[in-house]
Amino acid sequence: MISRLAGDSTWSRYSLAWSGIQAVVMMALESVILYIHILESNSIDDVIPSAKYLLSQRTTNITSTEVDAEATTLLQSTRVLSVYHVLFIVAQLFQLILLCDAMLNKNTIQIIAIVIFNCSMVAYTGVQVKQASDILAKTPTDSLVNMILIRFENAAAPTPVHASLPYEIAVVCLMVIFASGFAYIAYKLYKEFGWSIYKKIGADLSMRDMYKVYQIFIMILKFDVFFQLGFSAQFLSVVVLEASPDMWSVLTIHLILSTGASIILPLIAWWGLKRESKISMWCFIVCALGTLIYNIYKLCQVSFLESDRFAGAQKFLKLFLVVDLILGILTIYLAWTCMRNFNNGLNAHIGKVSGSNIYPMESVGGSSKRWSIE
């Protein structure tokens, strides 16, 4: 399997080994962090009733409604942070799968995207430390978080240290090393793959441009799936935690739309590209526009319409939605561009690059027995 993906390229083998080690090490460490965070979350759940009672005994201007709202926000933050840990674990598998696919298709653009994706994970590891600290951060005035700190006997500490902090720091340091190392390997692969594709496709600039758009579109589709599912996991965790009367209707509608956007639409696009079917591509573009409108509505809902409902998860919900919107606009534009390139011989050249024939060989020129792939 490795020889099929890497071929005779030493740097391809290095990249697969490096990415595989990164996935194993980061998933193991993040699993430990997730386990510790779940234990702390359960402790917070147990402490909240007594903390609310202690707060009610103090002479403050805080109403019971404000206390309940603060409790909901705190619970949202702890539960959704668990989802972020799971997403980080999935992201490690995702980057490894992307790399295997890039090796198979000699996709330099996708390798560059993995470098950027790794850099974004480095940024998240830093945010992760602050998120976990903020959940137990001491506030200057009376609050529910302050009461929880009293129950944890950490009232004297301005910023109590959570148990997973050493592992989180290790994740930050290791991700910087892995991301930097992969960036260097990606540079070497870029030079190798660029020459390989040039030899197979040739010097036809128009064909190379069409192939580049095709590669970018396929890559963006994969990131669409990851970020759309990432938003869905966070959104549904908040809805389930809230347990509102309309929970099941919201869950059902969102699951149907999310499944369509994350699974069915990419399959329609893939089929349309392989068969150069304009009908399939038009179906994809129309449905993608519908998904774009739905994500705009969700962004308004999280930011303005029901901001209190999503207070504990608002920042990352908005981040994922903004990324989904950017990717959605790019996807629609690239789908339209790819559709315009249909019937110009691109599929035959894709077959040369991948080593497989997209179309069967057809006779060329009257009674001649010469065969060609065109």
Automatic annotation (TrEMBL):
It comes from the Eukaryota. InterPro entries: UPF0658_Golgi. One of its GO terms (cellular component) is Golgi apparatus. The chain crosses the membrane at residues 16-38, 83-104, 111-129, 169-190, 211-231, 251-272, 279-297, 317-336. Keywords: Membrane, Transmembrane, Transmembrane helix. This is Uncharacterized protein. It comes from Entomortierella chlamydospora.
